[in-house]
Here is the input.
Amino acid sequence: QVQLVESGGGLVQAGGSLRLSCAAPGRTFSIYTMGWFRQAPGKEREFVAAINWSGGRLNYAEYAKDRFTISRDNAKNTVYVQMNSLKPEDTAVYYCARHSSPFTDGVGAALFGSWGQGTQVTVSS
Here is the structure.
């Protein structure tokens, strides 16, 4: 496992935007698929978005497709998710995660072996 550190969460009004960042240590960042998940109070953790090692394949949850954009900067060992048009139902703790194996795709949570501590996103109505 590697230590992932999320940042960028906070309180925002409905309709606003936030950009979350996740920094990963080491020189192997560029060979792993990275993802974002979220967990709202009383609910199970759910998939938000994923980006493969090269950035050439993106996957989004249906609710995120038109509002969220995942990206990565392999030179900075960082993955981002830009979240626009935020809604109160987007309120959750957002987690960054890294695939367990290099050069593999897939969005199931079980495929991700390293997780960050999470960053709180709160959207007020």
